[in-house]
Amino acid sequence: MHSKILVATTALLTTITAHAAQPAWPDKPIRLVLGSAAGSGPDLISRVMADRLYGVWGQRIVVDPRPGVAGILSADIVTRSAADGYTWMMLTSQLLVATNVYTNHKVNLARDFASISLIGTVPFVLVVNPQVQAKSITELIDLAKKSNPNLRYGSAGTGASEHLCGVLFNRLTSTSMLHVPYKGIGQAVADTVAREVHLTYGVLPAVLPMVQAGRVRALGVTTPKRAALLPDVPAIAESVPGYGMFGWYSLVAPAGTPQDVLTKVSAEVVKAAKEPAFGEQLKGLGIEIVGSTRAELDAFRADQTRRISELVKSAGVSVQQ
User: Fold this and answer.
1) Residue 52 needs a FRET pair 20 to 30 A away by CA distance; which of 4, 78, 103, 267 works?
2) Do domains 30-121+246-315 and 124-238 have the same CATH topology?
3) Do residues 79 and 253 lie in contact, with contact meaning Cβ atoms separated by under 8 Å?
């Protein structure tokens, strides 16, 4: 009997010791992969979030921009990473659109990624070169109908959210402005300034400096309501009933990441979203803070997937890599 008790006690102590020996997460730097270039909206937001979490855990969150194929390249990288809590991804509206537009890829966002938190949402802005003879959405529509298909709009690339903004605008206004894809929104905005294209749909943080400098003219925002940073710029929906698009930023991790890690990170993002200092940083980038729970992001992702897939299908937008 004593020997059995001794064996059981030894086994219990071994188990307790093993658990005690496991380092608390996180005990090394974390990689945050995103599908946009350095200096883009997702990159800036990722760095604000990385700084905030470093202050909590004392571990660096290394922001790793991997642009390509409208974000699909970054998703492919993360799906091949260990699901140990040390690799995250910035899942954006751009990537959701791209996975519906590009047909030859193996990424399945619903299957391959576990939700952490929806950080926030942001409008896109329709901007034109100041020499374009349109100072309102109504005037742009009239000009487009007279100029079809000579009026050209730029985007961050075929399959990007900005591309879909233009698809929806053409569809609802019975115009046929020509889409000109670029490898990033910075190039599209630069060519709008240079009059290589007439207009561009750009996420608010990317185009705001150009708008403020007068190098482009903002005609409308894509969200149903006006943006706080551009209160004098109307929503496109004020002239085009039913129009509505917006960008969003969320944190996810490879499927299979430990549940306690996902919950820990999500709780910290929710906490950060309620802090005035953190909120002001993101509001300065044009972001409307959300800070959702994991379940709320699950529901949001499902709703957005349904909406975007229906729009892409009805518009007939499809690209093979």
Assistant:
1) 78
2) yes
3) no
CATH of range 124-238; options 3.90.950.10, 3.40.50.300, 3.40.50.720, 3.40.190.10 = 3.40.190.10
Band of the pLDDT at 107, cuts 50, 70, 90?
A: very high
Q: Read out DSSP for 17-84?
A: HHHHHSPPSPSS-EEEEESS-TTSHHHHHHHHHHHHHHHHHS--EEEEE---GGGHHHHHHHHTS-SS
Q: Rounded distance, CA 112 to CA 124, Å?
A: 27
> What's the DSSP call for residue 226?
-
What does the alpha-carbon distance between residue 315 and residue 226 come to, in Å, rounded to a whole number?
A: 26
Q: Six-digit token pair at 222?
A: 């894509």
pTM summary value: 0.79
Please report, as a single letter, which amino acid is at residue 268: E
Does residue 244 sit in helix, strand or coil? coil
Residue 274 to residues 228, 260, 268, 278, Cα–Cα distance (Å) = 18, 22, 10, 8
Banded model confidence at residue 52, pLDDT cuts 50, 70, 90: very high
